[in-house]
Amino acid sequence: MKKQILFLILLMPLFSFLEAQNVPEHIDNQTIVLFLDEMASSHIIELNSSIKPYSRSFIAEKLLEIKEEEEKLNKRQKAELEKFLKEYSLELKTSTKEYRHNLLKKTQNTALTYYPLGLYYNDYRFRFSLKSIYGVKHYSTSDSSAYQRWGGMALNAYVNDNFGFYVSLTDHHYSSNIVAPQYLIPDQGAILKGEDYLDFAEIRGGINYSWKWGHIGLKKDRIAWGEAYNGTNILSGKTPSIAMLEFGIKPSKWFEFNYIHARLASDLLDSSRSYIDINGMYRRIMHEKYLVANMFTFKPFKNFHISAGNSLIYSDEGIQLQYLIPFMFFKAVDDTYNGTNNNAGHNSQMFATISSRNVKYTHLYASLFIDEMSIRRFRDPDRHSNFISGKAGVHISNPFKTNLFFTAEYTRTNPLTYQHFIATTSFETNQFCMGHYLKDNVDELYFSLNFKPYESVNIGASYQKIRKGTPFIYGVVDPWGVPFMDDVVWSSNRLAFSISYELFSKIFLNFEATSYKNQGDATTYVPFYLSRDSGTAFVGQLSIGF
To answer: For 172, 211, 310, 369, which has the most beta carbons within 10 A of its beta carbon?
Structure first.
């Protein structure tokens, strides 16, 4: 592995004459994601939205494209555009002299501002921004309450036009464990620690080298692959951040390729390598676990994207050279080495997405995740299930400049999808499923309606209906004979109202009130801040953060 990375580093000077940068925007920053999505649906820009996070330089490039078409925007959109142009001033190479709220006016290259909030430095070779992170969220129901608070710092930096690096460290504290792996919630998973196991330190960061049509880097971050507005079903980004080698190219307007090779956390004890040291302490060593994945994206015509890719989970053998070749079909590679022994093989997957914005203001999309599929099982009445997950939806953005947004989305995931009979190669890390947050044997219907009268205000309402089937346990029944939703063990109807207000640049005040009606074994499937019985609960969430 070290030799391969050294070889790539030696090649970097060959691309030094080309200008590019690649520091990712945080995957949770939905304001900019939805703004770009709106602009794409309005036919102002083109966007491949199946691979996230977007890089900050990519976002800045799209903002400049939007600026050129500013006469097509309404008043709210123009205000949002100006706000984002300030937020991405570092990537736009804005001189510190142009910051309107600079508290360090006498300095030539440095700016300390509250709009946008942060410390900025910019000269001909080196640029960086240093920003604080803080937030608090409070949950309450009719009989309980909980809170979460977090704080930290984030640094983004660029050297010349090709090299970028970033680091973000955030400490979280929970009043109780509301983010356990078994909870079916879209919130980011966390590995809690501390005396009461209620603290979580999230560190993201990486180094990256970019050129005009590609990039390569090492980073620890969260990623989301697939098309969705309420949780993707390929790689959801719900898990704690993972370390990965990342490679991407876009050599033409009609083709894009993305690849990752990631180190996962199995959380499974490797007893053969664990030992008692000379001080009598037991050293616990976990099984190694890796993910390799790629995605090919094609644009056969304007505003239409088709993506297809595959992935593989492998373990216990160290980093394998064959999986460092980005363009491979990894299942076939695995068969070369382990095809004669099924128990020695690894866990492979395939996936595809379709995204169409050909109708103005409208985004039609679908994602398919294939964990295991056989044409024979479609015809065999005793073998009900192929292990697949499908998602389809429509999102309408600001039709005729009404500032309204509508989403309708359906997800169905068959039994055993995302699972594997070998525990060390399951589709998860830190015990969190990397696919859809509702896991397997489930379907979900989701509707939302949002109104954005001003750039700082977002008012929304949503309805969600979930059905969860009986969980499968290996060794109890035949995995090939498990029917979809044969027995609904838990269902939930959720009606939510929310309002978000941006007080200042990236300082948000959010409120959400939710009514739930749950039926079934809620103790197993419902997170802390939902009702744990079959009645109705009213849930309030109040949060402030930047």
So the answer is: 369
